[in-house]
């Protein structure tokens, strides 16, 4: 059981005892800034910068020869990164690759597995997931000549925060062909029981894919147990691989012989790739779902930062993440709830991801005021201040200072100085 205290001295003591404290020096901490938005865009690391600069130097020196150096490492860069990423989710190295972006990878997964029949034609989704997933689902359904109003089955949240796994399983009727769900919900930080839901889907003959965007790098997954059919994720949030970094894609080895829904030259077998045949001869592993030439400058920072993750280990990251988010919730209970704030995420360790969803009717203007205090938060409609104390680079003292600032903003009504008009990037 965790025991916290409300003093700043306690926060300092926690930092002194933090086994991950030294890792903070590997990140580009900005003086005077409290960065709480790593669940949206992770902080830059020295390791990521050095890896990117190294690839730029090699391009400068070798030109097109970069594809051949270091035993063709950069031509096969997706294999190198896939093997590293696989360790974070306990998957086999050839089940994981990196390519394109999350939305395109959703299209890739659905187009590979969604083959509707008269009896099975529905895709099951929820109504509080990040909308890009739904946009891709609707698009794929239309490409099959079907109407999303008829072919999309929606599991509704009862509280607009969380999903009920029992309701999801109840929705797995005989007309459902495929399921796409988030591992962690982006607003409320709810962590779904992926193993339970996946098992139920497979017992009913349904393909299931997971969106790990808000869990990868914060929550350890064991895909050797969960055994989903496919999964997608971005690498720029908790994994700190840079703005718009290349995304991740997992496909279970039992599906390697399936024809990719979106085929491309880079997914061809290496042995025949440069024969430039007109018939696609796809690699029988996750890399067979590649399409075009890989963007090395988007990939290199991921290699650099993954070295940190593999050095520290996901268990240690999860341990601190749960502790420091629990500390934030403790301070919120002590100082913020009486000022109109409310915690909107599950509190149990087994049911929450890596961020805290702090709710307030004036959340948007509070976020603007936070930025004026050199705090970087993340607002989500309609009333959520997302706060992510990242295990690798956020200190307990920063969390203490954050809560003091949040209290002052409401106590002094500072938020009234800011407009309610939404800016482009909220």
Structural notes for this entry:
The chain is globular. α13 runs parallel beside α15 (396-411). It has helices at 8-17, 46-62, 69-72, 77-86, 102-113, 131-143, 148-151, 165-170, 194-203, 223-226, 270-273, 296-312, 314-335, 363-372, 396-411; strands spanning 34-35, 96-99, 122-126, 152-155, 176-182, 207-211, 230-233, 247-251, 342-343, 356-359, 375-376, 378-380, 384-387. The mean pLDDT is 97. Helices cover 37% and strands 12% of the residues. With 426 residues, it is α/β, with parallel strands linked by helices. The strands form 3 sheets. Strands 2-8-7-6-5-3-4 form a 7-stranded mixed β-sheet, sandwiched between helices. Strands 9-10-13-12 form a 4-stranded antiparallel β-sheet, covered by helices on one side. A hairpin with a 3-residue loop joins β12 and β13. The protein folds into 2 domains: 8-31 and 314-417, Alpha-Beta Complex (Aspartate Aminotransferase, domain 1); 49-311, Aspartate Aminotransferase, domain 2.
Main sheet summary: 7 strands, mixed
Radius of gyration: 22 Å
Name the CATH superfamily assignment of the largest domain: Type I PLP-dependent aspartate aminotransferase-like (Major domain)
> If helices are DSSP runs of H or I spanning 4 or more residues, what is the number of helices?
15
N-to-C SSE series? HEHHHEHEHHEHEHEHEEHHHEEHEEEH
Strand percent estimate? 5-15%
Distance between the termini: 37 Å
How many individual β-strands? 13
- What is the subunit arrangement here? single chain
Uncertain runs: none
